[in-house]
C-alpha cells in the first residue's frame, strides 16, 4: 500500500475532495475543528462580535501555530495582548482572498479566549451547521506553509474527511499526523493481507472471501452493533424509558460502533474483490508487467468497485438506523407497525401504535402518530411530509447539519424533529430554540408514554 494512496478519495472531481486529498498527502500535521455557530456567524451577519474562529488554549499552545508574542502597547499597565501572524492559503477562495496574512490573538484580559482572524469570509458564510475547518501545515523550502479548507458538513466531502481521519461524531477539535495515520492503517490491514495472499496462492480465495470478507446483511450488522453497545454499557435491551439519554445511545450505535464495524468489513471485502479483479481466482505466476496490464485493462471494473463502495455506505446507513429505532421501540414495549402502506406511494417507517388504531375514528385515534427515521436529512425531509396526512408526524435523525431555516420550514408543515440529547444545545448545531424540536428522551417521556395509556 503506497503512503499516498491511503488518502486517495473516491470521486475526487466532486466538490473539494481533490483539494482535501492533496492537503492530507502533503501536510506534516493537520488541525481539524468542527465549527461552532459563532465560528460561522461572523461571516454571515454584520452584528456579530466574534471575527474569526475560536482556538482553544490547548491548540493555541500545542505547537501547530507559531508561538505567540506579546504585542507592544502604549499603556504599560494594560493587560497583555499576545499574538502571532502567519501566511495562510485558501484554495477555495477567489482572487486575492486566497492568500491571507492571518492573525491568532489572545486578549489576556478575556481569560483563555483566543481567535484566529483575517480569514476569507466567503469560505465560511455558506457553511451548514457543524461544518469543518481543516488546516494543513507543511514545509515549503525553509518556511512553514499553512493551507486551509472549509468542508461543508452536508457534503460528501465531510463523510470522506471523517472516514480518512477516523473522526467520531462527538469530535470537536484535534490535531492529526497523516504519516502516523497511514502507518496505523497499514498495520491494521497487514495481517489480513497476509491471509489474503496465502488464500490466493492456495487457490482458495473464493472460499476465503465467503468466510473472511463477506459483508453481513444490513439487519445482521445492525444487530451486531447493538449487541456491542449493550455489552459495553451492561444493558439487557434498548429500553428508551431506562436509558438516560436514548437519543445519544442511538447515535453511538449507528455513527460510532456500527460505522467502525462496517468500515472493517468493507475494507476486507473491497481488498478481496480488488485482488480477484486484477489477479483472478486461480493462482499462477505473474510478472510485474502482467499485473500492471491487468490493472490497466480492468480499470472500468476497479472504478465500478470504488463507486459501489461509496454507494454502499450511503444506502445502508438509512436502513440500519431504522433497525435501531425498531429495536428501541420494541425494547420499551412501545406498540408499532413498520412499513405499512397508508395509501398509494405512502409507506411511513413506523406507525404508532397501528394503522387500524389511527383509522379507527375514535377520539383516541388522534394520539397515534407517524415516526420517520432518517440518518441524514439534507432535502429528504420533504419526502416525509406527504406521509403526514392528518396525523402527527415525528422525524428522528442523528444529523447535525440542519440549518435553522430548514427547521422552521418543517415547523410550518407540522413536522416535529426528534434528535439526540447532545445535539440539542450543542454550540455547533442550530436546533436550540425551535418549538418543533425535541430530544429522543423528551419524545419518549412526553409524547409516547402519555399516549400509551390510550393505546392499550
From TrEMBL:
First and last residue of the signal peptide: none
Keywords, in A-Z order: Endonuclease, Hydrolase, Nuclease
Protein's GO biological process: DNA restriction-modification system
Pfam families found in the cross-reference section: EcoRII-C
Gene Ontology molecular functions: DNA binding; type II site-specific deoxyribonuclease activity
Residue ranges constituting the Restriction endonuclease type II EcoRII C-terminal domain according to the UniProt record: 298-443
InterPro entries: DNA-bd_pseudobarrel_sf, EcoRII_C_sf, Restrct_endonuc-II-like, Restrct_endonuc_II_EcoRII_C
Gene3D superfamilies hit by this protein: 3.40.91.80, DNA-binding pseudobarrel domain
Protein name, UniProt field: Restriction endonuclease
